[in-house]
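pasting for ref
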Amino acid sequence: MFFCVRRHRQFRTPRLPQLWVLTLPLPLPEPLSQPRIVGSPFVKAGGSTRLVCSVLQGQADSYWWKKDGELLQGSEHIQFVQNSTLCILRASISHSGYYTCVVSNAVSQNETSFLLQVHHSENVVLPVVLACVIIGLLAGIYVWCQRRKNSSDSCW
């Protein structure tokens, strides 16, 4: 414990000294290195992924996560494991973006970001509207055909 006393010498009347007490934790924690995030930068829509944040130097007292600069809250798709790990369950395209891990202790704060891209898998069926415009007097039945790699064309 450290203390400081100030005495008032210019006054003749007895006054109590002012006393300030400053308590510092000993030893002071080491400043934190920039954290790193480990995880896959790509995840298929409907899949899950895990981002793990760690510091190589110092001991972090707290972790928190942001997405695209906004504080990230837990939900049915977003879960935190010991605050240092972010789990994204049943990912959708809206989960794409920059995820930032912020770490802090009594003497420092640091952060780093990670770009996560969620993409559609080949098994996901997206709605497609195909329009066929016919000009003139071409009577007949028209069908749509799809050219596929390594197989014959298919029509329906």
